[in-house]
Amino acid sequence: MTVSVDRTGTVTRKAGSVESVGKDGAGRYCVTLKKTVDVARSVPIATLDSAADWKSGIYVGRTGGVCPANSVRVTTGTDGVAQDQPFTLIVP
Predict the structure, then answer these.
(1) What DSSP assignment string belongs to 49-77?
(2) The whole model's pTM is what?
(3) Which residues pair with 14 in a beta bridge?
(4) At 9, phi and psi to the nearest 5?
(5) Sign of CA dihedral 29, 13, 34, 59
(6) Strand order across the beta sheet in which 2-5 lies
C-alpha cells in the first residue's frame, strides 16, 4: 500500500488499501487503511516529498489516540514546529 499526500491532506496518488486520509491540525495526518490490512502487524515507512521545506522532519507510527482504528499517524514539521508538508507513506 502506497499513498502520496500534499500539504493540505489531499491524496495525490494511491495504490492499495487506503480507506481515507484525514488531517486534524497542522502537520498531523491520519491515514486509515481498509480492514484487509492489519496495521498492528505492519511497519509503516514515511518520507517527505521533494517539495517539502528544507529542515523539515517526518514521524510515523501506528494508530495513536486521535486517529481512527486501523490507521497510521504521520506527523510533519519544520524547525521543531508542526507544519504541513507533503509526504509518501508505504505500509508493506
Answers:
(1) -TTSPTTEEEEEEE--TTSPSSEEEEEEE
(2) 0.93
(3) 3
(4) 95, 5
(5) negative
(6) 11-15, 2-5, 87-90, 45-48
Nearest to 71 by CA among 42, 32, 29, 23: 32
CB neighbours of residue 84 within 10 Å? 22
Q: Grid coordinates representing 35?
A: 480492514
- Domain definitions of the chain by residue range: 2-90
Write the CB contacts of 27 (distance below 8 Å, at least 6 apart in sequence).
75, 76, 77, 82, 83, 84, 85
26-61 confidence digits (pLDDT tens): 999 999 999 999 998 999 999 999 999 999 999 999
